[in-house]
Amino acid sequence: MATRWWWWQRAYFVRWLPLLLLCATLIFSACVAPAASRWDTAQEASSGERATDKEALAGGEFNKFFPQDSDDYDVVYTQEKSGFAEAVLKQAGEDVATLAIFDTVSNPAAAEKYRESSEKIGDYPAVEIGSNGTGILVADRFQVQVRAKSDSFTAADREEWLEAFDLDGLAELE
User: How far apart are CA 172 and CA 174, in angstroms?
Assistant: First the structure.
């Protein structure tokens, strides 16, 4: 009887052995850390590095350079963070455009497209940004943009609102 029992146990174990091996393989392979990709290596190498020694200005410092409310339009500030401030331009309660100032000191590549531009608004190089945006670069550092949110807000309107910013005051921040 003892011999039969041993053979029965062995047969039962052999039947389940492939499933046990598969489970063990899955469990142990899940515990192994993945190898670092080239992106992880690049991220690690550049972490903590800054593009420049200068600090981006606080977004709140830009608010005084935005255009003021007019009879038909309201300027509503929506976002401030380091190096950036944004407002929405409303007409009759409807959003018609966004107005923004970005300090490119933290991302100098953002200013490159302006340096190659032959277009100007006032004394500042200008570029079209997509089909509904216009931007200028002030003092080789501050990107000022107007983006239409309404089809009725034209390129001429964008240019007019860019000129309504206190661009000379903004240039003095540099």
Answer: 5
Q: What is the pLDDT of residues 71-121, one digit of tens each?
A: 889 999 999 998 899 999 999 889 999 999 999 988 888 888 898 888 999
Which residues make beta-bridge pairs with 98? 88, 147
Closest CA to 111 of 70, 83, 81, 152: 83
Structural domain boundaries in the chain: 2-46, 59-173
Residue 70 has a pLDDT of 86
pLDDT tens for each residue of 127-158 = 999 999 999 999 999 999 999 998 889 999 99
The DSSP string of 57-81 is PPGGGGGGGSPPP-SSEEEEEEEEE
Topology at the third CATH level for domain 59-173: Protein Transport Mog1p; Chain A (3.40.1000)
Q: pTM of this prediction?
A: 0.68
CA dihedral over 69, 73, 77, 83, signed as positive or negative: negative
CA–CA dist 110, 71 (Å, integer): 34
